[in-house]
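Q: Given only this backbone (461 positions), what sequence would you predict?
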């Protein structure tokens, strides 16, 4: 019997296929296209002199390569798969559409072939932790779970191994959701705040991209939103199916909420206490929100006891307030995932004491003024670095309540020297926190590389 995956790629035979950007998510796609005997051209800005072994192997297997600075110039094809970081409004992509080329993506293909229920998570902060929590809860209940998407694992080439009773959990970025014509069965939006405005034309475009996670749902689907976030709460009015809300500040009509140090469920005329907040091993109120979102997502598919078991034992995801080591009484935490002010604010609020903060990185052209009061309240020593270091320093120095030396501020251009500077200033009992409030691209490939370099340097102290 022909599978959905077979049928999808069979329909591409005889067509000229372009793969625009050959990063992590698109490489399994290229292998599948070659496996099914499809004419594929890989277009990537990497020059031939810098090709890695995997791309060279794909070329040997039959893929054509169109490389270098002009990799989008002079293209023609029947179907083009866009990499998430490539804005669909680029003139070269619009020209392809005018020629009649069908623009799609690896993720759109996965939605077409996936045989089981999809839960998708998006938002400005908390996506990875929330998606991982949903996955862990389903696993604890005994389901076979496939966790992927923006979290770093493409799933298209695994679709044939999936069964209808399995669960798929995806993290989806705004880049993946731009022009996305599909929505998941269960859609979770953790929160929204200004982010990625170096790529998106404006905040409205960013919000519109996020909305695609639920705009194509039907009456039998479910949308889960953060009631405390004005933007996400407004999404409920546009939902076609059931809406569940989670909140730390109020009680929704249906959903999950925090009250008197406990997490509660409400709906169908019942209000039930699920667990104590103190049962959650992960620090910070933002992780309480992540748990509430995950609890709403799994619903009755996971027992209350299994949810509590996950809360008591799950130690978190790498680069998210990750304890690296304790040296000479100083705790070093890696929160490299914090690529926006809102994420760093959540990290700062996770600690009961004022911290030594290392912040700064690539400039995504987002405002930093909101970070200033939090720096004054939660930071004893601020060490700025990278392209946004000056903006972060200015946010602190212009914040209400700032007085010179509170926090003390040091500007250190070199990332590694910034870490060593923090260590030299730390006293027993201090917390040193890497939470950059900025992307990593000014010095590193991504936040993961930045986090690992931080950990490596801390271990060498």
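A: Predicted residues:
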């Amino acid at each position: 019997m022909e599978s959905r995956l077979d049928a999808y790629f069979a329909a591409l035979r005889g067509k000229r296929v372009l793969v625009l950007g050959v990063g992590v998510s698109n490489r399994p796609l290229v292998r599948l296209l070659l496996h099914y005997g499809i004419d594929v051209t890989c277009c990537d800005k990497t020059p031939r002199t810098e090709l890695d072994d995997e791309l060279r192997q794909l070329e040997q297997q039959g893929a054509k390569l169109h490389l270098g600075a002009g990799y989008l110039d002079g293209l023609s094809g029947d179907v083009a798969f866009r990499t998430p970081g490539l804005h669909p409004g680029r003139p070269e992509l619009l020209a392809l559409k005018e020629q009649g080329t069908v623009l799609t993506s690896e993720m759109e293909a996965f939605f077409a072939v996936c045989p089981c229920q999809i839960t998708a998570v998006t938002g400005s902060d908390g996506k990875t932790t929330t998606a991982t929590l949903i996955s862990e809860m389903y696993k604890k209940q005994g389901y076979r779970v496939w966790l992927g998407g923006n979290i770093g694992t493409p799933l298209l080439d695994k679709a044939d191994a999936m069964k209808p009773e399995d669960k798929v959990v995806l993290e989806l970025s705004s880049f993946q959701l731009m022009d996305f014509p599909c929505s998941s069965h269960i859609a979770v939006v953790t929160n929204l705040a200004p982010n990625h405005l170096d790529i998106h034309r404006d905040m409205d475009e960013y919000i519109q991209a996020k909305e695609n996670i639920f705009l194509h749902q039907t009456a039998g689907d479910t949308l889960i939103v953060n009631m405390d976030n004005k933007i996400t709460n407004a999404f409920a009015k546009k939902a076609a199916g059931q809406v569940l809300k989670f909140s730390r500040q109020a009680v929704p009509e249906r959903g999950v909420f925090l009250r008197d140090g406990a997490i509660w469920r409400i709906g169908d005329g019942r209000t039930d206490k699920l667990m104590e907040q103190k049962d959650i091993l992960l620090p910070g109120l933002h992780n309480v929100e992540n748990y509430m979102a995950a609890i709403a997502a799994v619903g009755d598919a996971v027992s209350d006891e299994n949810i509590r078991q996950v809360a008591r034992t799950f130690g978190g995801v790498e680069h998210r307030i990750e304890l690296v080591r304790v040296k000479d009484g100083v705790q070093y935490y890696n929160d490299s995932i914090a690529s926006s002010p809102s994420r760093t604010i959540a990290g700062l609020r996770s600690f009961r004491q004022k911290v030594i903060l290392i912040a700064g990185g690539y400039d995504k052209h987002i405002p930093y003024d909101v970070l200033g009061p939090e720096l004054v309240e939660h930071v004893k020593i601020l060490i700025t670095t990278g392209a946004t270091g000056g903006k972060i320093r200015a946010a602190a120095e212009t914040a209400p309540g700032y007085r010179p030396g509170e926090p003390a501020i040091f500007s250190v251009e070199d990332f590694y020297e910034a870490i060593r500077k923090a260590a030299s200033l730390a006293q027993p009992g201090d917390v040193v926190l890497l939470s950059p409030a900025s992307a990593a691209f000014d010095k590193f490939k991504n936040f993961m590389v930045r986090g690992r370099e931080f950990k490596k340097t801390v271990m060498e102290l």
